[in-house]
């Protein structure tokens, strides 16, 4: 939106029509009030001017008469106050008995300020009398009405000037916009001409430099233009170029009928471009040419008038294709032989990978079992030695009650240690067996995953024991699947254990979200927490058996390996990890809704 125009009012002209109307008002005012002078004053610092004066008897003021400001005039006070001033008798008023107007015989005064719409002071409208005059309320109201009429005219004058200046500004802006647009068009024209010259140069270098020749065929007259490169490519001289009949005279007879038929078909329906490969006689040799062309002009009946195209020498490519065809004749045999070699190599790689994986698992299992089994052997050896010692003391009659009690206490502690390490070894063996779990061990049935997950999480994470953990389930309550519920329970149990052990170990709590949705025959389970996340350098290892970041702190590194095995072996699905350090971890699992 355009900002409002700031009209300068100091020299703003008042039109003749307005002046005439104001003059009539002053004359009428002087007659109604029976006074000698009615004035409209206009301030023009440092002076004030009699703008209009009533044509009445005894009026001492003449139009365009000027008086200096700062001399104590009545009108100065009116303009300074921006309000009414009434002086009934200046001779008896100590504030006005020195007023310059007394010298003209004007001893009473009533005036009001005249204000432009922008609050600048125009001047005053006032009446003066040579006699004492209290100017009653009717007179005051009459002067106010005349003042309102004059200010309406001032508003109109101001607005007319503002609109004129706005129109002038708009015209100036429009003229500037037109000038800029013209300059832009001129610049665009120059740029377009430069681009056209550059395009022509690029066209010339692209075609001629790449070895392509250009031809231009006038179908209506039969004439043809061949570029210098095209003439060189075809081995022709300008005198030999009489028309496009050279196709029939120099094209290989084996390709001529087919090319003529293709060209005739294209000219009947000239859509897209015409492309043809054929041999052409150049001197005593045959070369292969690639012809490309397009109809660029039609008559009023849609018949082709002009066709432009290019010739490219593809002899080298054709020779290479011939050689390649010879090579490809024995390709199947070579592919079959190479495939057999590749299959053998893949089998060997598969065997090596299985052996390496088995070796890693056995090494990991041996490492984990070494501690509890070593402790069992140590405890059993110590127990055997203690039993031998107590038996010897008994045989030699040296066994005391205190010694027997110490033996029994130590035997109890040793048995407890034996049991704990035996249980740990048994747990390790049980988990190791789960790595190779078979889906046949799992019962398959129809169930509501929402209910199964809700019951499982109430058992795993009761609110009274885990008040700082929030659970959010996003599973449709009407979703029914036919799958292995115990496998899903084991999977989520291991993921929850992983979150508690690793994700929330520093925060002491957080949020766990489980989503299960179905898309046709596939289910997607998303398990996510807002824990500390998993570093990028660890994400490729988390599903490896016996990989743990809590070595020596009770972690065995089998939880996520079991999750991976359940997903692949039982659910016949796939799992991926998405995690950023400090932003939690999400396990996305996709598996068939009804695995076979």
TrEMBL record:
This is histidine kinase. GO terms for molecular function: ATP binding. It catalyses: ATP + protein L-histidine = ADP + protein N-phospho-L-histidine. The keyword Zinc does not apply. Gene3D superfamilies: 1.10.287.130, 3.30.450.40, Histidine kinase-like ATPase, C-terminal domain, PAS domain. Keywords: ATP-binding, Kinase, Nucleotide-binding, Phosphoprotein, Transferase. Its EC number is 2.7.13.3. Pfam families: GAF_2 (PF13185), HATPase_c (PF02518), PAS_3 (PF08447). It is an enzyme of class 2 (transferase). Residues 199-270 form the PAS domain. Residues 268-326 form the PAC domain. The keyword Transferase applies. CDD domains: HisKA (cd00082), PAS (cd00130). Residues 364-595 form the Histidine kinase domain.
């Amino acid at each position: 939106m355009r900002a409002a125009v700031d009209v300068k009012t100091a020299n703003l002209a008042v039109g003749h029509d307005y002046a005439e109307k104001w003059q009539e008002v002053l004359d009428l005012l002087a007659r109604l009030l029976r006074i000698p002078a009615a004035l409209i004053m206009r301030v023009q610092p440092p002076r004030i001017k009699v703008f209009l004066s009533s044509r009445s008897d005894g009026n001492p003021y003449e139009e365009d008469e000027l008086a200096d400001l700062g001399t104590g005039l009545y009108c100065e006070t009116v303009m300074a106050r921006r309000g009414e001033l009434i002086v009934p008798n200046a001779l008896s008023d100590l504030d006005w008995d020195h007023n310059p107007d007394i010298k003209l015989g004007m001893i009473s005064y009533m005036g009001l300020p005249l204000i432009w719409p922008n609050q600048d002071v125009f001047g005053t409208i006032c009446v003066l009398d040579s006699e004492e005059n209290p100017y009653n309320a009717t007179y005051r109201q009459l002067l106010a009405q005349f003042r309102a009429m004059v200010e309406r005219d001032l508003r109109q004058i101001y607005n007319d000037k503002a609109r004129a200046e706005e129109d002038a500004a708009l015209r100036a802006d429009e003229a500037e916009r037109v000038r800029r647009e013209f300059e832009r068009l001129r610049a665009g024209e120059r740029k377009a001409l430069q681009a056209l010259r550059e395009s022509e140069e690029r066209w010339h270098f692209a075609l001629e430099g790449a070895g392509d020749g250009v031809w231009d065929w006038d179908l209506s007259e039969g004439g043809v233009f061949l570029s210098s490169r095209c003439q060189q490519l075809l081995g022709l001289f300008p005198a030999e170029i009489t028309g496009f009949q050279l196709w029939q005279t120099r094209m290989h007879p084996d390709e001529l009928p087919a090319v003529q038929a293709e060209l005739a078909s294209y000219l009947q329906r000239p859509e897209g471009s015409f492309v043809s490969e054929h041999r052409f006689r150049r001197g005593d040799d045959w070369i292969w040419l690639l012809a490309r062309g397009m109809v660029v002009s039609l008559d009023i009946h849609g018949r082709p008038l002009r066709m432009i195209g290019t010739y490219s020498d593809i002899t080298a490519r054709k020779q290479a294709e011939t050689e390649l065809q010879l090579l490809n004749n024995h390709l199947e045999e070579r592919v079959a032989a190479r495939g057999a070699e590749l299959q053998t190599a893949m089998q060997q790689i598969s065997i090596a990978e299985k052996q390496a994986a088995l070796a890693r698992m056995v090494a990991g299992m041996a490492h984990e079992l070494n501690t509890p089994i070593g402790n069992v052997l140590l405890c059993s050896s110590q127990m055997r030695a203690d039993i031998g010692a107590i038996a010897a003391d008994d045989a030699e009659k040296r066994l005391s009650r205190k010694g027997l009690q110490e033996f029994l206490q130590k035997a109890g502690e040793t048995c407890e240690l034996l049991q704990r390490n035996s249980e740990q070894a048994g747990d390790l063996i049980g988990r190791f067996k789960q790595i190779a779990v078979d889906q046949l061990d799992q019962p398959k049935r129809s169930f509501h995953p929402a209910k199964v997950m809700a019951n499982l999480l109430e058992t795993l994470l009761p609110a009274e024991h885990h008040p700082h953990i929030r659970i959010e389930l996003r599973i449709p309550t009407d979703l029914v699947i036919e799958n292995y519920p115990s496998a899903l329970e084991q999977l989520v149990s291991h993921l929850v254990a992983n979150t508690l052990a690793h994700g929330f170990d520093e925060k002491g709590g957080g949020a766990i979200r489980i989503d299960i949705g179905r898309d046709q025959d596939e289910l997607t389970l998303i398990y996510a927490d807002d824990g500390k996340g998993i570093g990028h350098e660890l994400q490729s290892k988390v599903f490896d058996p016996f990989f743990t970041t809590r070595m020596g702190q009770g972690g065995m590194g089998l939880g996520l390996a079991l999750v991976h095995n359940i997903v692949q072996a039982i659910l016949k699905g796939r799992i991926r990890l998405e995690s950023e350090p400090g932003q939690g971890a999400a396990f996305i699992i996709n598996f068939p809704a009804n695995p076979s």
